[in-house]
Amino acid sequence: MAYQKVNADQRAPGHSQYLDNDDLQATALDLEWDMEKELEEPGFDQFQLNSAENQNLENSETADLNLDPIQPATSPKGRFQRLQEESDYVTHYTRSAPKSNPCNFCRLLKIFCTAIILFISGILIGYYSHKNCPSNATSSGTLDLHLYQEILKTIQGEDIKKSFRNLVQLYKSEDDMEISKKIKTQWTSLGLDDVQLVNYSVLLNLPGLSPSSVTLSSSGQCFHPNGQPCSEEARKWSSQDLLYSYAAYSANGILEAEVIDVSYGNADDLKRIKKMKNVTNQIALLKLGKLPLLYKLSLLEKTGFGGVLLYIDPCDLPKTANLSYNTFMVSLNPGGDPSTPGYPSIDGSFRQHRSNLTSLLVQPISASLVAKLISLPKDRTTNGACSPLELPNNEERIVNMKIQTVTKFETVTNVVGYLKGVTFPDRYVIVGSHHHTAHSYNRQEWASSTAVITAFIRALMLRVKRGWRPDRTIVFCSWGGTAFGNIGSYEWGEDFRKVLQRNVVAYISLHSPVRGNSSLHSVASPSLQQLVAEKNKFNCPRRDQCPKTNISSEQIQDDADYFINHLGVPTVRFTYEDIKTLEGPSFLSEALFPKHATKIEEMDPFFNLHETVTKLSGEVILQIANEPVLPFNALDIALEVQNSLKGDQTTTPQLLALASRLRESAELFQSDEMRPANDPKERDPTRVRMLNDLLQDMEKSFLVQHAPPGFYRNILYHLDGKTSQFSILLEAWEHCKSLASNETLQEALSEVLNSINAAQVYFKAGLDVFESVLVGKN
Predict the structure, then answer these.
(1) Pairing between strand 222-223 and 213-216?
(2) Where are the domains of the chain?
(3) pLDDT of 632-649, one tens digit each?
(4) Which residues touch 19 (CB under 8 Å, ≥6 apart)?
(5) At what angle do helices 157-168 and 445-464 cross, to 10 degrees?
(6) Which letter does DSSP use for residue 314 in this model?
(7) What's the CATH number for 210-377+388-403?
(8) Least confident of 158-167, 238-247, 431-440, 449-458
């Protein structure tokens, strides 16, 4: 065809104001008017387009104007590209004039000149539209790594460090609202579309007026949780650390009983101890780690214990972590406001007054206090090896533990900001961090988290101000109430559950960017592990010296919990850790130590690690928010299921057969639908939208109804990076060994079986729908 008419009022769905260009539109309108005048002149009266050419015109016009949100722009030369491709345009579309016509030469000359003018005008218009409106192309899913790097190159460690130090100055206020308002002001000034403060009135369990204490009955010596003798001087020395050395939502009271060492408190430990002693209403000396704390406490409660002294063995920590005298805080809240379990804490909601979530008196204590209780020497190293703390079986220790906490309703505030997408504004990529919560440790980890998310927002908005926007909406969240059981994220999730179930495609956690400085640890859903591995390799400066990729799908302690376990949302988190921490027992991060600003700056003095985490997370966010087809891998989920069943002594033939069928369906889905959709030449907008809807809901099939306390409901996540079996099957097998009945094991097997079957049916139904659509079109 020769040219394309462009109406000034044509806009793509979700078209952004940043894509408008008045000068270009005016030029196009003038050109349209001139061409209409030309067509009215003699010689053009029989200029006609057949039906096939009309169809080409429509397709070309759509592609050039980017009305199709999926297909990328095919040429930078704009609306008149086909003039180049059809050199015989003049003879192809004009009739031959009679030889006797004296104006034949003039008319041919006029046609020739008109074609030349159109050709040059097309090149100029295409050039300037490409130059001045880069967002028109990039908003259609054609972003590549070069653009990602251009956005992220402005992120600098020094800027994150300055932001971190500014945030640290705010923590001195006990008012959670002040920090939230500062974050909102900063995000608004950076240019986010809509930044809101979302408040919830929730039930918090707070320390009493005086710190808890542990008293040796034999000597009458009284100790604070950090191992210091009970005295007014010791209380003043570190008053806040002593007050906040407690277990939130523990039972209150006084208990005098024998201390029984239960080690890590697993089923085998308890079975062994019950054969030796009467444990009813006694006090368990429990190590943190290896299993979720809530699960271990549930076992102790069922066994009959009345109290728990909880500690971390120094042998489980890196040598650089000198925490012998440090106490810590834990929360016994599985998630959300305890007064509104399963529903949001909004005005008018029924409130349950639950001052404690367990019948046990639970008190965290330092390793130095444990050493005093069992009368061990300070130096416990043997030939350079650390000797674990252990209470001799033949010795008896009677202690008196006193716990006093108070419960009251307080306001928890979330900061939520939006960057609206231009093509799929109803699909959300959520980026989560957390900020300081009043009435808890003055930890500086929140400042690290907030500084990182703010650095990414700043880099992103610099590009937005130049006219670019992501295809999908990015939602930035700074959560409150994290220390008390991820309360802010749970309440927001419950409040907007229906919308989030339908619209959220991924959650990127920036909860703990730097917890060590020796190893990058990546946690990702199975469907996103391939993407994360690619980012790790791409950001390694020398491929031959790249460390082994450390990626796993394991339980994490942060605000991603609700999105993983209740919405089945694919999740990614990058964190720098100490290698010793990764090699040691899992779940030590359940302990909240009072980490001060100097410690974080010691681990990362130039904030280069913070910069790396920000850029890695940013690339993942950009790719998920901009790729026409979500970068999720369906086959990896099926492979993960098969790997989780390998070597598992509880596996049945039915499970293995279902897992095999799931893999077959996933392979068909990957080859028949994903591969063509990733080819721009074969990409159909309707099918791509259907495909993305299937991809974002893949993990929902693996949410089981019942999981042990502290275990993920999403069975694709393992207890730690060292185990590959389904966690609920592992727990059920351990439970079965200690009981005569195997009912618990059968229930767990049924949960896993139904999940795998639901996933297989889901993929199969998706393939059937695509096939039906294809047949209908043909």
Answers:
(1) antiparallel
(2) 142-205+408-519+581-605+615-626, 210-377+388-403, 634-776
(3) 999 999 999 999 998 777
(4) 12, 133, 135, 136, 139, 422, 467
(5) 130
(6) G
(7) 3.50.30.30
(8) 238-247
